[in-house]
Request: fold
Amino acid sequence: MTRAAGLSTGSEERATVAHMPEVSVQDGTTQAFGFRRRAALLWKRMREAPYVVRRRFARPHPAPVIVLGNQKSGTTVIAALLAESAGCAVTLDIFFRFRRPVLARLLTGRDSLDRFIRRHPYWFSHPIIKEPSLTFFHDDLRRLFPSARFVFIVRDPRDNIRSILNRLRLPG
Reply:
């Protein structure tokens, strides 16, 4: 067995790796071949395991509170405050987890929101859902979630644009 620097789980534990060849590097030290890459992949899978199980058995919430509005208008703060005061989970920024073409397919009509929700029910399973990009799909959301309650965040356009420019580090 090779003893190598391991994963950080909040303590200074070390992982033991069996059957992993050792290679010598230029400075004369010995490392387990590919250990960091393999350990990182294993650690990622271990952290994701509960989510994989939840995703597999998730069902869309029958009556979520859906927070909509322009990006940088305060939707995250309002959704977080709602979740905190209600003591429940919140889904934030669904499309951040996917590549750009997913949203583009929805916006151009090449995919439907209904199919997207059936393929990814986990992201719609929490009592509060915040996704500014879903603002364009309000009618579809109302049809798919007839018992949902909607919160539309409206911010002064000048402040909203200033916030976007600040995020992009642009003067103006």
Observations:
- The mean pLDDT is 82.
- Residues 2-57 form one domain.
- Residues 77 and 83 are 10 Å apart (CA to CA).
- The chain has six helices and eight strands.
